[in-house]
Amino acid sequence: MKKRERSACQDATGCCRVVALVTVDERGQMVLPKDLRERAGIKAGDKLALVAIENDSQLCCISLLKTEALSLLVKDALKPMMKEVF
User: Fold this and answer.
1) Quick check: 70 and 47 in contact, CB under 8 A?
2) Where are the alpha helices (DSSP H) in the chain?
3) What residues contact residue 15 under an 8 Å CB cut-off, 6+ apart?
4) pTM of the complete model beyond 0.85
5) For residue 40, what are the contacts with CB-CB under 8 A and spacing of at least 6?
6) What are phi and psi of 18, to 5 degrees?
7) Tens digit of pLDDT for each residue in 7-54?
8) pLDDT of amino acid 24
9) For 50-68, what is each residue's pLDDT tens digit?
10) How far apart are alpha carbons 35 and 49 in whole angstroms?
11) 56 vs 50, 59, 60, CA distance in Å?
């Protein structure tokens, strides 16, 4: 069986840091800086999942994940439970 490679996001152990500042326009849109898109491998048409952490019913942290990375994280989390079911 071929071992699936883990993405950098799945093995992230470093501290969060500010990598860019963006401005939200009057339509609620923002632009991710080109260097950030290139480093993250984000291309036109890619789907991103917005993940938020809520504290006392206020959003305190918002992150963007490529949907492929999120899908792998969910599959890895569910794998032990699925083995028990089957």
Assistant:
1) no
2) 34-40, 67-85
3) none
4) no
5) 66
6) -80, 125
7) 555 555 666 788 889 999 999 999 999 999 999 999 999 999 998 888
8) 94
9) 988 888 888 888 888 889 8
10) 20
11) 19, 8, 9
Angstrom distance (rounded) from CA 13 to CA 10 = 9
| Residue 67 CB partners (closer than 8 Å, separation 6+) | 46, 47, 48, 49
* CB-CB contact of 20 with 40 (8 Å): no
Tokens linked to 74:
């969910």
- The predicted pLDDT at position 10 comes to 53
Closest CA to 20 of 7, 9, 36, 8: 36
Can you tell me the distance from the alpha carbon of 74 to that of 82, in angstroms, rounded to the nearest whole number? 12
